[in-house]
Structures are given as structure tokens and as C-alpha cells.
Amino acid sequence: ETHAASAPDAAAPAAETQAIGEDVAAIRDLILAKLKYSVGKSVTAASPHDWFVATALSVRDKVVESWLSSIESSKRTGRKRVYYLSLEFLIGRLLIDALTNMEMIDETRAALAELGVDLETLREVEDDAALGNGGLGRLAACFMESMATLSIAAYGYGIRYDHGLFRQRIKNGRQLEYPEDWLSFGNPWEFQRPEIVCPIGFGGHIDTETRPDGELRQVWHPGETVEALAYDTPIPGWRGAHINTLRLWSARAVDPLRLDQFNSGDHIGALMDRVRAESISKVLYPGDTTPAGQELRLRQEFFFASASLQDLVRRHISLYGDVRTLADKAAIQLNDTHPAIAIAELMHILVDLHDIPWDEAWAITQATFSYTNHTLLPEALETWPVPLMERLLPRHMQIIYLINALHLAKVSGEPDATGHRLAALSLIDESHGRRVRMGHLAFLGSHKVNGVSQLHSDLMKTTVFHDLESIAPGKITNKTNGITFRRWLKEANPALTSLLMEVVGDNLLDNAMVLEKVAALADDSSFQERYAAIRRANKMTLARLVQQRIGVKLNPDALFDVHIKRIHEYKRQVLNILEAVAIYEEIRAQPFRDWIPRVKIFAGKAAASYTTAKLIIQLANDVGKVINSDPALRGLLKVVFLPNYNVSLAERIIPAADLSEQISTAGMEASGTGNMKFALNGALTIGTLDGANVEIMEHVGSPNIFIFGLTADEVEAKRSQGINGQDAIARSPKLSEALESIASGVFSPDEPHRYRGLVDALTYHDFFLVTADFDAYYNAQRAVFRRWRDKPAWWRSAILNTAHMGWFSSDRTIAEYAEEIWNVPVTPPGRK
Ligand code: Z16
Fold this sequence. Notes:
The chain is α/β, with parallel strands linked by helices. It has 3 domains: 1-77 and 107-127, no CATH class; 78-93 and 128-164 and 188-481, Glycogen Phosphorylase B (Rossmann fold); 552-808, Rossmann fold, CATH 3.40.50.2000. It is built from 34 helices and 24 strands. The strands form 6 sheets. It has a 9-stranded mixed beta sheet. Helix 3 packs across helix 6. The relative contact order is 0.09. The structure holds (1S)-1,5-anhydro-1-(3-chloro-2,5-dihydroxyphenyl)-D-glucitol. (1S)-1,5-anhydro-1-(3-chloro-2,5-dihydroxyphenyl)-D-glucitol binds next to helix 7. Keywords: Allosteric enzyme, Carbohydrate metabolism, Glycosyltransferase, Pyridoxal phosphate, Transferase. Phosphorylase is an important allosteric enzyme in carbohydrate metabolism. Enzymes from different sources differ in their regulatory mechanisms and in their natural substrates. However, all known phosphorylases share catalytic and structural properties. One of its GO terms (molecular function) is pyridoxal phosphate binding. It catalyses: [(1->4)-alpha-D-glucosyl](n) + phosphate = [(1->4)-alpha-D-glucosyl](n-1) + alpha-D-glucose 1-phosphate.
């Protein structure tokens, strides 16, 4: 056996090393067995992907071991369960995550090394599970990990999309979308559950029947039924103490094919029903903050909400025998309004299928559900046309009408119940055709409604939910987002994690607040040196990746200024590009001033239908092309756009960032979570007082963050005076010059007017207040430069960022949900 020959034969090892040696040998043998018997390959024929599958299956065995005990123990102890309903789970890769949380990573790396296989190579061949658009989906993934870490008996419920978020390619500076195909090589993490199938009805009609007790009952006869088939993925918490389930539903036709039709020669027609049914779980909608509005999207929402509720009600009844105790044993969290139809579905199940009286059913529903809001953008709030609802979900539409009638009857008695107020409170928006307001439904059907940062939660009360809050004071609560430190510190930045553990101890990932101890070393020059060396190594790694992917050479000693997130006007990538253009022109005018070498790194996808966002991508690429090839700059400024931003790319970029761009128009970014990942890894933030930036400033201290620009209140005041940019442009020579060069085609010589419309919009109709904030942003960037020149001051700030970010662990966020919304206990992890 070749692998036996390559085993190191060093001097007699210490006892602990010997135990690890035995582990390594056992893991190595298990991987070899998986490769042979589960993958069906020999060592000599195995590709890196084969090795990846064999390794994944070997760690999966350990995961399953604990998974089954977790399920058993939740059952035995009658624990209340948490159900996290989300149309998106942006998980990324799982190999390193599973190995980390099962505490097998060093042994597995060593076992593979004995086989001549490099774990980092296997890491890279795994496809990202990209079942989400951005922050909302990634938050769901962080929450799943933290719920397992805190031993909460939780299930994630969502859709097993055949195709996740599109792959982005850049051609001639423009975004092109290609289908993503994460399942094409199989998925070693999931278990199909062919026995768990739920029928999902659409359309049809409703009959009224008389029950034996004389009461009336509504019976829905769907016109069409599809099946929801379950696939389970185990989600290990830190140290593997508890493992939860992510259950994703795949759509399937009731009849696989119409055999009569097939036999009569109509081979395509025989498959039509199947294609129609299975289209429901085919593809993730790529809009982040704009609702899709199509019938297929509503079918997706009902499909997974109904399957999940049928599944959890069935589980509850089989455990406890009585659906009326549901709220004692189940908490259902709605991740945005996407699953809000679940509220009507639970009423349907309770009232129509279990004969529970309406008022009691409504009390159970409200006690069970809670709802998280992720945006205030009015155009982003989901509404469905009443005629579509009536056609697709006739019984649910009746239920919504009844909820609304009882709700409006309650408030119409109040003295301030004007028509205007009732219209604002109604579940039906009558202003442009009749539409069902899903946010209102989620609000009414829940006992708690939360925002995702303090500022956002406060604004919810004065904007979209102002009227509803007045009839339910105290229902709105804040739960500031968080991130899992296992992925975003240890897996993304293992060298920094080791350094920090030397200081705070190896319980850093059990209790992130111990990071505070690092603050004492912020001025320690030898610690600063080690911290800076790790950053530099991460920048070298990223520079190699950039060279490979887009052929641009980066200077690792330049300031890496990073702006990565979905492309959206409110996130103001344009503000950043304008600053790059302004500095470009200054360097050309005075090439030999003491410029700071800087690299602007952009990455992010634009919704395929969002024309302006796609134009912004093109602008970033066009500007980069001119700047990167201008010899007059002597490499002092580079602008790169990295294609196909996803979770695994974020894991590479964030640990290499010096500066984190969080520059949304104040009041528009609900929270942000990338902001937290950067600050934890020691990038300084340049940002507005928006979303969680406010709380990051409070924790890291205002000297250690570069805050600029209008506040949310000032944005509102300014907008009410008009959004013409001409004054701001006239007052700022740098801004006028930058706009002028973009508008005149300096960066688009092949099509000089390409950006005329964009510049005109900023000039005459600047809704996102780019022009109003330009000078403040420009000045904040100069403050960044001054700090960068003073290296001890820079590293002091960076270290203090890391030290004070413990509070932003999603363990803290989840502990708050558990205590204040779900009423379930948590058990913090700890060393075995
Ligand atoms: C999304 O990712 C978010 C909001 C939304 O309405 C839809 C999607 Cl797909 C984001 C917010 O924009 C961001 O500020 C927040 O941090 C994130 O949700 C998680 O709460």
C-alpha cells in the first residue's frame, strides 16, 4: 500500500500526538473506504472531486452520528422547536465548515497529506450552495449554524433550487448571466427523504359542508396538486455538540408521466404536467430587494410554506397528540414576507382541517409566528394582486379577507378611525388595483416583529409599520444581525484566529466576547507586527487570485479598499467610483506628490433586470480598464472588478481588506452583515450612519471608524427639499470634473455617451444623494490616507476593531431571539 509507505516514522511521539496519530490513521482509512465503496474509484483513478466526495462522506459519518442523537434527545426531552422559514439559504461550501465544527480539520488535513492529497485543493472543488441572493440568505445560513451551536432544536425550511443564483461573467465590461448548476456533480451532504412527501394544492374551488355538530366547514378542492419532496442536510454546531436539520423541498409531479399519451406517440405532451410541476423548484429568483411579482414566485412561496407547515404540524401531532398546543412547542420565524402566506395556511390547517374555532386558531397562529423585516424600501414590500390570489389560492384569499374584516372591525370603533387610517391599516392596498400586503399579514399574524439593526427597527416604527405599530405597541422589537465567527473568522482567516487565540485562549469561538482582551495589545508593537504580517500574507494570496482570474497584478503593500455586495443604487458603488476617478485625475495632474498606493476592489452581482445596476458594473470595469493601463499612474491606483462574487470569494477577499466600504444612503441599508465580517477581520470601515454601521461605531469607538455624510434624518429633510444635484456639483470642482470626464467618454471611448444618462440622473434626479455626500466621502478618504501613513495608528485601530466586534457574533443575536421571541432555552458550547 503506497499510503502506508509515506507515513512519517519520526521519533517516539508524546501521548497526545500518538492519539492524534491514531485518529489520522482512522480518518485516512475511512476516506479510502469511502473513495472505493461509495465513490467507486481507485486511488490511482481518483480526481480531486472524487477525493472531495470521499472526504465529505467521511466527515458526514461523524456528523450523522451526533445528528441522530440530537434528534433523539429533542424528542425525549419534549423541547420546543424553532422553525426558520426562508426562501433563501446562502450556505456556500460545507467541507471546511463541517470539518471545523466537528473539530476534525487538522487530523483530516494530515490524513489526506499521507495520501498525497491537499485539503485546500479539495476545498476549492466544492460548488457553493448559492441558494440565496445576498445578506438575507447569508443571515439564514449564519443563524442555522448559531442555532446548532447553542443547541436549539431548530429546523430550517426552504426550497432545494436545482439552480441557485446565476453565475456572473464579465465580457467587455458587461455582466452576463449563466445558469448555476451546483447539483451537476451530486451533493454529498444531503439525504433524500422519499417517504416525506406533502401534497401542495393550487386553484380549484371551495365547498361548504355541514359538520356533524351543525357548524359549517369550508372544504378546498384544489384544481391542481404537486408534491413537495424533502431533502435533509445536517447542520453541525460548533464542537459538534448539537446538529440541526435544513429541510429543503423539491417539487415533483404527482404522476411522473402520462403513459397513455406517451404510448399514443405524444412524448413531449406526456411530460408537460411534470415540467409544469417541477418548474416550482427549478430556479432561485435573482432579485434581491425588488419583488419578482410573477405567478411562479407566488407558487414557490406557497409551495414551501405549505409543505413546511404540513410537516411541522404532523410532527407536533405525532409527538403531542393535540394541535392546540402548537405554540407551546413550536416557534416559526418568517424570514421576510416571502413565507408570510404560511399564516393563512396555518389558519386553513387549524380551522378547515382540525375544526378549531376561528378565534382560538388565530390566537395559536399569533403565538406561533414571528416576522423579521429586512428592508424599508417601499417598492420592495411584497404585495400580490387579489385576482391572482383568488385564482391560485382561493381558500387562503377568503381567510385573508376574514382576518382583515375582524382586524378592521376592531379598529373602526376607535375615535381616530378615519378612512385614511383604515386604508393604511388594511391588508388590502386599494391604491393601484387591489393587492394583498404581505408585510401587513406577517405583522398581524405574529406576536413579535423585528428589524435587523437598531436604526432600522426605529425607522420601522415611523415609516412602513407606523399605523400597525400604533394598534400593537411593543410588537416591534430589534434584533441586530450577527455573523458566525466559525466561518468568518476561523475558516476564512485561520492565521488571525490562531494569533487571537494565543491572546484570549482557545474558547474564542465559544464566547466571542473574550475578544475584548485583545484591546490591551492594540499598542503593542510586536503584536501589531504579527497582526500586520497576517494581513500581508492574506493580501498576497488574494493578489495571486486576482492575477489568475483577471490578469491584473496587485501590489500587496497598497491599501486594499474593498466594496463587495450586491450592486444597487442605494449601496452607492457610484460614489466610490467617482472618488476613484477624482483621485485618478489628481494623480495625473501631480504625479509626484506622496500618493498612497491603493487598490479599489469591487465585486457583486446585479439583478438581471436591473439596468442601472448593470451599467454601474460596466462603469467600474471601464474605469478600471483605463486606470490600470495608464503608465502615468506608476501603479499608484488600480481598480479591479472581480467576477462572480459569492460566499467563497468573500471568504478570500475579506481577510485581505484594509478598508471596508459601507457607504449606503443613510436610512436605506437595513443592517448590512458584510460590514461586520470586515471589521472583525480588522479592516477599518468608511461608512455612513446607516444600519448596523451605527452600532459598529458604538462598539469599536468613533476614532477607529471613518463616518461621513448625511444622517437618515438629514436624508429625509434633504429629499423633501428636492433631489437635484446641480448645487452640490457646482460647489465641488472635483465632483464636477469627475462627472464631466465620465459623461464625455474618457472611460468609454468606444461609446462616448454610454454614461450620459447615468450622469444626467445624478445631476437632475439624485435620489440616493451621491452628489450631496461626495465631498464628505472624499474628505473621509483623505482621513483614511492620513491614518494609513501613521502605521502604528492604523494597526492600533485595526486591532481595536477586531477586539470590539465580539458582540456581532450571531450567537448573541440568536440568544436574543431565543429569549425574547421564541421562548426557548440556549446551551452555550464549551470545551469537551
Ligand atoms: C436582502 O438580502 C436584504 C433585504 C431584503 O429586503 C431582501 C434581501 Cl434578498 C438584506 C438587507 O438589504 C441588508 O441590509 C441586511 O443586512 C440583510 O438583508 C440581512 O438582514
